[in-house]
Amino acid sequence: MQRKIVFLINPVSGSGKKDGIEKLIQQKAKAKSIDFEILQTNAAGDYEYLKYKIAKDGITDVVMVGGDGTVNRVVSSLYDTDVNFGIIPMGSGNGLAFGASIPKNPAKALDVIFKGNVGFVDAFTINDHFSCMLSGLGFDAQVAHDFANKASRGLLTYTQQSLVQYFKAHPYQFQIVNDNFSFYTDAFFISIANSNQFGNHFTIAPKADLDDGLLDIVIVQKMHKAKLPFAILQQIRGNNDLQQFVEDMCQKNILYFQASSLTIRNLKLAPFHIDGEPAETKEEFKINLIRRCFKLYMPLPKQETKEKSKSELVEN
Ligand SMILES: Nc1ncnc2c1ncn2[C@@H]1O[C@H](COP(=O)(O)OP(=O)(O)OP(=O)(O)O)[C@@H](O)[C@H]1O
Questions:
Q1: pLDDT tens string 107-133
Q2: Which residues contact 92 (CB under 8 A, 6 or more apart)?
Q3: In this structure, which residue's CA is closest to atom 7 in ligand 1?
Q4: How much is the ipTM here?
Q5: 276 lines ligand 1 (CB under 6 A)
Q6: Could you tell which of 8, 9, 13 is best to mutate to test the pocket of ligand 1, judged by most ligand atoms within 8 Å of the CB?
């Protein structure tokens, strides 16, 4: 089937600089004789209008040029259409793109899209919000709220805000409930992760897989603040195994488990974020996985790439 791609460029995501990206898309798409159109994202995050265009013009792919906020808004509007999604990572964090091994270099990310390998990606609802990367409560949500109020975006601003918040950080009280267990915890933050990271390869949920039917839940419990960076470093390095729920959870700094549904009671109204975008907090969050929610262009896994090039050698 002839591909027809709509590119949606976010003019403000990341450092904001998108010089040359339109030209690059034009050159590469024309070289492949692929039909395309370039549009801008909108601040309201409303893409319902694209459904009509997708049906009328036979659009096969929607490619998002931006960060996780852009991906969240576009996919939540359009996942029930037949399009495949692509990402050219140009946000501040790019947690979903990097979790899917999509390269940061725009020309290479475009090559991935044009090569045409798609994989399924799970998503989840958190109350009536849609999330496909990582949502959470507490410290990182406070950073997301502060970041949204800054005039500039990008990694530098994000790192500055994280440092400022680190010194102010304090634990919040939560109750965690699922079919098999219920417990109270005081925690600096809770991450509900579909992708393995916050972004920028900060892999807070190293065992997360975009297509495993499970969400990784990371609960960074109350501890002496001086220990916090070391405990998080252990976690991002993958030194904490996934835990079955055992009685020694009070001995652990970080709880790490997987679930496809969960309820979090937010007893002290910790701040909340959805895929890195600040959102209004609530006393209770009900989380449910949406299995294989959408299809995303991503590189072939390394093993398959090797096998494919071997079979190409044989064919030739
Ligand atoms: N045309 C537009 N004009 C102004 N703002 C826009 C426009 N389109 C989208 N936005 C806003 O851009 C913001 C940031 O988008 P996005 O999340 O993609 O970038 P980021 O925050 O820099 O990256 P990341 O989420 O990966 O950290 C969103 O809050 C969205 O409302």
A1: 999 999 999 999 999 999 999 999 999
A2: 13, 14, 15, 67, 147, 153, 154, 155, 157, 158, 199, 276
A3: 43
A4: 0.97
A5: yes
A6: 13
The pLDDT of residue 316 is: 39
Separation CA 218–CA 216 (nearest Å) = 6
User: pLDDT (tens digit, 9 = 90+) per residue, 248-291?
Assistant: 677 889 999 999 999 999 999 999 999 999 999 999 999 999 99
> For domain 4-117+298-315, is the CATH number 3.40.30.10?
no
Q: How far is the CA of 12 from the centre of ligand 1 (A)?
A: 6
Contact 164, 146 (CB under 8 A): yes
Nearest residue (by CA) to ligand 1, atom 14, is 13
For the chain, give every domain's residue range.
4-117+298-315, 129-291
Instruction: Give mean pLDDT, residues 210-237.
Output: 94
What separation in angstroms does the CA of 249 have from each of 131, 184, 254, 256, 304?
28, 11, 9, 10, 39
Q: Which CATH architecture has domain 129-291?
A: Sandwich (2.60)
Amino acid symbol at 297: Y
